[in-house]
Amino acid sequence: MKAKETWINETINSLDGIERATASSDLLQKIQTRMVPFENTTILPRRSFYWSVAASIIVLIALNIFGAIYYQNSQSLTQAIPVAVANDYLSYLKPINL
Amino acid sequence: MISPEVIIKLRAGDEQSFRELVDQYRDRVFNTAIGFLQNPENAEDVTQEVFIEIFRSVSGFRGDSSLSTWIYRITVQKSLEHIRTARRGKRSGILLSLFGKEDQLNIAADTPFYHPGIKLENKERAAILFKAISQLPVNQRTAFILHKVEGLAQLEIAGIMDTTVSSVESLIVRARRKLQGLLSDYYEKNER
User: Fold this and answer.
1) d(Cα B146, Cα B79) in Å, to the nearest integer?
2) Does the beta-carbon distance from B28 to A20 stay under 8 Å?
3) Which CATH number do you get for residue B129?
4) B73: nearest Cα among B142, B125, B168
């Protein structure tokens, strides 16, 4: 039990006397390299990007729905035309037969 | 210590002042980041991001807190952000592995971390401690790392975490208690 407590305390205290880790010597150069594209580019925030994707999907779905409705309407119209033509034709025939 | 004149020049985008700032804070930022990320490559990446963020947002620095507090705050935020992103990547790793791209995941959570500033005789134990630190709740972890790894005073940590000194003290005590529990479990499994 005592050995365990000693081990735990020694482990927690193992950071005593820690020295600061040092960054690489070419850090500034790397930062400057990464900063160059920033100067000429407009960055789209991640949230805006997700909103743009969502809006595009909604527009796509809406266009598909409108397309489907339009297609359905045009189909029923084309089906209705021959009936109308036939009716007209018969309506002209009726007086002749009389 | 960065003078107010340098801060004014920084706001104007002066390159020489930025260089001075990087020179003065590079190791503090890197050491804090490495405490959180436990990986030198990731810590360097975060260090670069921190300075880029400083350069881009220094015009908005009003001086309510000291420059040092502000820089540490950005470092903590960026480090935690990096950890969250890595976790999200790890979760999607199952999907990636299905398509044979598991090599894209570069998360070394299970590899021991040897902090370069630890005394040689303490290296192994510190590696075990760092593994336990990574399991602490975020607030306790932040207070413990800033205090024990970066060596900041509780007053300064309170400024960075935007809380009171007594809260920081309490966080460090709770972190220590939690670490004792985690290390006790580790001892039972491995050292006995």
Assistant:
1) 12
2) yes
3) 1.10.10.10
4) B142
Structure-block tokens of residue A65: 């729905």
- Select from B81, B187, B190 the residue whose CB has the most chain A CBs within 10 Å, as the one to mutate to test that interface: B187
Q: Are residues B54 and B147 in the same domain?
A: no
What is the secondary structure of chain A as a DSSP string? -HHHHHHHHHHHGGGTT-------TTHHHHHHHHHHHHHH-PPPPHHHHHHHHHHHHHHHHHHHHHHHHHHHHHHHHHHHHHHHHHHHHHHHHHHHH-
Q: Do A21 and B48 touch (CB under 8 A)?
A: no
Distance in angstroms (rounded) separating the CA atoms of residues B183 and B177: 10
Residues B92 and B158 in one domain: no
DSSP state, B136?
Answer: S
Highest mean pLDDT among A73-77, A81-85, B52-56, B91-95: B52-56
* Chain A nearest-CA residue for B49: A31
Confidence at residue B118, expressed as pLDDT on a 0 to 100 scale: 94
Residues B111 and B121: their CA atoms lie apart, in Å, by 19
Residues contacting B125, CB < 8 A, separation 6+: A10, A11, A14
Where b means 16+ CB within 10 Å and e means fewer, B110-149 reads eeebebebbeeebeebbbbbbbbbbebeebbbbbbbbbbb
Read off the tokens for A77.
Answer: 């119209």
Range of the domain at B136: 118-192
Residue B125: the pLDDT is 95
Domain stops at, among B109, B128, B163: B109
Q: Of B64, B89, B109, which residue sits at a domain end?
A: B109
ipTM of model: 0.81
Q: Which residue has the tokens 């037969």?
A: A97
